[in-house]
Specification:
This protein has 66 residues and is mostly beta strands. The chain contains no helices and three strands. The N and C termini lie far apart (35 Å).
């Protein structure tokens, strides 16, 4: 299941939850408010084990090791 990041519009707390990809939004764990917004979060992807990832430059990219 994906990890989602949320922000409470009531108290400003930020928190994460592992949830199914559905429109349901959890209540704020700090104040209990339902006024919560799902945030856009960056994600990490890994390459094949031992390849060093996708760039900078440990793996399959077009930067040529620069």
């Amino acid at each position: 299941m994906p990890l989602f990041e949320f922000a409470c519009r009531n108290c400003g707390a930020r928190f994460e939850r592992i949830l199914p990809p559905s429109p349901a939004v959890p209540a704020c764990p700090t104040c209990g408010s339902a006024a919560v917004t799902r945030l856009l979060s960056p994600f990490a992807a890994t390459g094949r084990e031992g390849s060093g990832g996708g760039c900078a430059c440990g793996g399959a990219c077009a930067c040529g090791g620069r």
